[in-house]
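Bumping my old thread because nobody answered last time. Still need a sequence for this structure:
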């Protein structure tokens, strides 16, 4: 719980922590051969990393806005 309180109000660090936890969960799922669960966790892990690097917007509304903008230009 102390880790979570320390991260409050720091979005980037919070997301890095979430990504770390997802990595651990992915390893656990793979070890138990829960392939589909591991796959979905991997997708969330990648999304978290892309968001930290600024390659993906942090909010779904922003992602939809980018998609709409891209389609209106085409």
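Sorry it took so long. Here it is:
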């Amino acid at each position: 719980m102390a880790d979570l309180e320390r991260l409050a109000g720091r979005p980037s660090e919070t997301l890095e922590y979430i990504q770390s936890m997802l990595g651990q969960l992915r390893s656990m799922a793979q070890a138990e051969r829960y392939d589909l669960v591991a796959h979905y966790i991997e997708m969330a892990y990648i999304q978290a990393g892309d968001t930290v690097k600024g390659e993906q917007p942090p909010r779904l509304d922003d992602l939809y806005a980018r998609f709409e903008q891209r389609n209106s230009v085409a």
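Helices lie at 2-7, 11-31, 35-52, 60-73. Let me know if any region looks off to you.
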